[in-house]
Design goal:
It contains 17 helices and five strands. It is globular, with a radius of gyration of 23 Å. With about 375 residues, the chain is an alpha/beta fold. The protein has three domains: about 200 residues, P-loop containing nucleotide triphosphate hydrolases (Rossmann fold, 3-Layer(aba) Sandwich); about 40 residues; about 120 residues, Zinc Finger, Delta Prime, domain 3. A five-stranded parallel sheet has the order 2-3-4-1-5, with helices on both faces.
Length: about 375
């Protein structure tokens, strides 16, 4: 992964390059930012630049033995710590990780769960991972340079894993770099946050996403700008938008059906709706609730008649033209709070039928406000 392969983020790239040139490489970095903006490709490109034998002015050479190994993610001094399920280890799923990342480093947590066949399980970075990475980093560098550990979705570490990692961050081996990647820094131990140099990475601007879609995916100019606008700064979202989008179609239909049934107070049909959603996996249920939160927010903004502030496709906009007046300042916060509470209950493994039927009943009252 070269810096030139990372979409946008020119200021972050230059900062990282300058740290290598000035020999100011920190022992621990925390890459923070929303999903799909390039945190992982930035981390890999930075690691490759550090280890490159023939560094260029603004990028790794891409052809030296070190870079060739990095292109396949098999460099012996590059280590990954990953969330897994069923007591897997990062090492046991590393081939699946390499396949996913080399295909495209712009993916999300759900893509990773699918890659490891997690089904309905929640992926976690188990305590044993801290022991494994400690053992690896205690050994001499295989190629005489830096040893680099990239901890992806670092906020998913178990408490004991975090505590053991903290000890390693307090007394790191020489020429060792940790890069923690997260979208939820608040879920990390405060002591870990304090021992890392935090780099906040921003959304990618629309024009950069549009240009990348044109050059890398062959998307036409007009369509690329429309997709870039809907992606809201996430290249991963943009890629998902140009791929088969059956899930979003399903979510849209479920959202529309629930709003209509709740408004019409069709309790029996609402119960059937709840049973249908409850039959979906928990990860999919969480994605549905996130989708509903987005559409409620977009419908509320739609009332302002500011097209540049809305992020909906044509089908969603068509529905919003009739539904948006029912989402207003009197009920929007109540609806969002109920969706957030439902999401929290699903994460806590509360009975899904109860969660969704309870939410649908509350929508009867909220939509009348």
């Amino acid at each position: 992964m070269l810096f030139k392969d990372v979409i946008g983020q020119a200021d972050i790239k230059q900062r990282l390059i300058n740290e290598v040139k000035g020999k100011r490489i920190a022992h621990a970095l925390l890459f923070n930012g929303p999903q799909g903006i390039g945190k992982l490709p930035l981390a890999i490109a930075y690691a490759q630049y550090i280890c490159c034998i023939n560094k260029g002015e603004n990028d790794a050479c891409g052809v030296c033995p070190s870079c060739v190994k990095f292109s396949k993610l098999v460099h012996p001094d590059l280590h990954f710590v990953l969330p897994t399920v069923k007591k897997m280890t990062s090492d046991s799923v590393i081939d699946k990780w390499r396949k996913l990342v080399t295909a495209s480093p712009y993916f999300n947590y759900e893509h990773w769960l699918n890659a490891i066949n997690a089904e309905n399980a929640q992926a976690t970075i188990y305590t044993q991972e801290s022991d494994i990475i400690t053992r690896k980093l205690s050994l001499k560098s295989n190629e005489g340079g830096y040893k680099i550990a990239i901890i992806w979705q670092a906020d998913k570490m178990q408490l004991n894993c975090s505590n053991k990692l903290l000890k390693l961050l307090e007394e790191p081996p020489a020429e060792t770099l940790f890069i923690l990647i997260t979208e939820k820094p608040e879920d990390l131990l405060a002591t870990i946050q304090s021992r890392t140099q935090r780099i906040n990475i921003r959304n990618i601007d629309e024009n950069t996403i549009a240009m990348a879609l044109q050059q890398r995916c062959g998307v036409e100019t007009n369509q690329s700008h429309q997709i870039a606008h809907l992606a809201n700064g996430s290249y991963t979202q943009a890629l998902m938008a140009i791929q088969l989008d059956e899930e979003n179609k399903l979510f849209f239909e479920l959202f529309v059906n629930l709003m209509r049934l709740s408004y019409q107070r069709k309790i029996r049909e609402m119960k059937a709706w709840s049973d249908q959603v409850a039959a979906m996996g928990r990860e999919r249920q969480k994605r549905l609730l996130l989708y509903c939160q987005r559409l409620i927010r977009e419908n509320f903004i739609f009332n302002l008649h500011r097209n540049e502030l809305t992020y909906m496709n044509q089908e969603e906009k068509h529905f919003a033209s009739r539904f948006a007046p029912f989402v207003n300042e009197r009920n929007v916060m109540g609806i969002m709070d109920e969706l957030a509470e439902a999401q929290q209950h699903i994460e806590q493994n509360v009975n899904a039928k109860m969660v969704f039927f309870d939410f649908s009943l509350k929508m009867i009252v909220l939509l009348k406000q």
